[in-house]
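The methods section describes the discrete structure representation at length, but only in general terms. What matters is that the chain and its backbone geometry are given together, residue for residue. Nothing conveys this as quickly as seeing an actual entry. For illustration, here is how one protein appears when written out as sequence plus structure tokens:
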Amino acid sequence: TQLAALNTTQVAGLSSSNVQALSTTQVRALTTTQIKSLTTTSIGAFDETQTAALTTTQVTALTATQLTSLDADDVAEFTTTQIGALQNTQLMALTSTNMANLAETQIAAISAVGVKVLSTTNLAALAETQLAALTTTHIASLTTSQLQALNETKFAAFSETQIGALTTSQISSISETNLSALEATQVAALSTTQLQRLTTAQI
């Protein structure tokens, strides 16, 4: 097709109106090299239908610059499947603003390994409702540094099920302040094994 014949310079020269005129079939026909060549303005010009048309292969081809340039509306257009396809390097490139713009369903779609590579700043940027969307697998994958980056309000936003999913190593790293912020029902969700790993300072 004519679109497939465009070189990277020509793709980079496409205007927002050019991009918006592409059909979903044409969007899916873009090669990964062409996807990488799109300007941040062009990527942001995709409407919801066009964004949803991107294959997971195309999504994984997006550069860090392209991803971090997306605003709240752009981020919201990604499907959970597309979010789940993001590579660790792409997730690591996201800004705290990008993370804060993700819906709860999108947060839940990130792989456990993907959650583990999030910076402490990005994890701490998540709202209580977003943190509540983390699965028990996500919770168990969090590093001690990530857990320690959460203030007492955000740590206390974890459900009883999430609290029960914390590993013994994670339990030992939680600050006294965060532990004291837990409600009685959350404390009751701790297993005997978890309780045994609490230090005297934490108790």
